[in-house]
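Protocol step 4 of 6: structure prediction from sequence.
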Amino acid sequence: MSTLLVYATKYGSTEKCSKILAEKFTDEVKLINLSTKNNNQKVSLADYDRVIIGGSIYMGKIQKEIKEYCLKNLMLLKEKKIGLYICCMSKGDTAEQTLNKVFPPELLTSAVAKDYFGGEFNFKKMNFLDKFITKKVTKTDTDVSNIHEDKIDQFAKAMTNA
């Protein structure tokens, strides 16, 4: 079974989770980072049985590249085994509500797997404004990693067994 994993990342946490997730599959997984400026990779969705889409959350929103990709390919994506995930520092109901808010309802209802994988604060990679906002909101100025590998494992199993 062929798998396409499409993601967008701002500071690298979603890319990290995408690579961990890709390693969980026995078949080849094609990784596409939509947030790279030189992303000229033309990929036909027809070549893939499974499509996994992930993005990071900033101020309650997912990257515009993910939103545009989902809307542009909505009809084709609905015909595939879909997995959806977000990377964010929120937990529980807050993270689930965010997940359900940032993806199109048509994809959410047909997804065989959907979850949040946690996230990271890496102050060395942040721009000034993001550092300032993060410090004010979270009351921390140190790097934090909160990636849930157990959730990534469960997600991969759900995609494999679907």
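Step 5 (inspection) to follow. Helices lie at 13-22, 64-72, 74-77, 92-102, 105-110, 128-138, 149-161.
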